[in-house]
TrEMBL record:
Keywords: Signal. It comes from Mangrovivirga halotolerans. Residues 1-23 form the signal peptide. The keyword Nucleus does not apply. This is DUF4382 domain-containing protein. Gene3D superfamilies: Carboxypeptidase-like, regulatory domain. Residues 32-171 form the DUF4382 domain.
Amino acid sequence: MLFERLINTTLALLLLVSFVSCSDDEPATQLITVKLTDAPADYEEVNVDIREIYVNLGDEGDDSGWYELSGVNQGIYDLIELSNGIDTTLVTERIPAGDISQVRLVLGNENSVQIDGIEYALSTPSGQQSGVKINLNETFDEGIPYIIVLDFDAARSVVEAGSSGKYNLKPVIRATAEAAGGAIAGNIQPVEANSIVYAIMGEDTVTSTPSSESGDYLLPYLPAGNYTVGIEPNDAFESARIPDISVTEGNLTEVDTVFLTPTE
């Protein structure tokens, strides 16, 4: 149920996309959204100070593969408010397509826990100052939107330091990923038609430009559903439509090559 709700929320945002261009020179990318949620814990508040998020595009332990996500919604998040299926979005960004082995969550110093109305500072071990590394090991395909959920276990992450009323934060986090839509790919000939191709579902449209060399096109980040693909070439060719194309979660739907008819 959690992932169904997460996916529906993200798809509502993706439906606002009205133009996506493709270029022969642009590298393959993927759209990811990172969300934060928590398992229930017997505390009044567990506040964590989110500062930075990185993904490792290399292998585990390969420090050269870390990629910093920009536009993170920095702030202090009460994990107790994010339990029982509630989540919040930390960042949405388009990054290079491929494998993600790990996620690294960097916390600030304003972490605290509230017990019986008293707030205690949470100390973070020095070894985690550079960030908490969470294994993921998922492959992300070009043109498919994904949601990465960081499931914080507050009950196991807050550790009392002896009997002195001091507490440490030793984050226990599980990362999972789920596709939140699909994509359509195909080819239009001849390339001299300089076509514009678009996918339509209801009143929502995503547009792309085929490669000027091969005629290949990609219509990415599409919510699941049935689409009509429309092709608008220059005046020397007739327009074309391909109805009833099904897009499913996490899949690339390939359609047959379209050969445009010259105008008379």
